[in-house]
Design a protein that fits this description.
Number of strands: 0
Strand content: under 5%
Distance between the termini: 14 Å
Structural class: mainly alpha
Number of helices: 6
Radius of gyration: 15 Å
Largest sheet: none
Helix content: over 70%
Amino acid sequence: MGRALLASLFLVSGLGKAAAPAATLGYIGSIGLPLPALALAAALVVELGFATALLLGYRTRLVALVMAGFSIATALIFHNQLGDQNQFIHFLKNLAIAGGLLQVAAFGPGALSLDARSGRRVAQA
């Protein structure tokens, strides 16, 4: 259930980006990030591809580590105006998400996962 809840946030966000790429490119460009199209593509890979892998429990530890890094990076890049209450909350939200993903990386996907079916090392609670 934890993997599904974490993945859902990324999947919804990725679907939003895929549905409105021009708006997302505009936002990425507005903060001065170079190569907005590449940044959008990377975000889509993480938010749709990696989140699907997390949901299914496929290569879960590695996927969770990458997604935790993505969450921290997006906090630092997009939510760094900590004097703005809304940005501060988004910054902390991203750090909390990274924390949840690090828990998944540390303790594994659980029994209901593709990793468990394939015999990959899965931590037992």
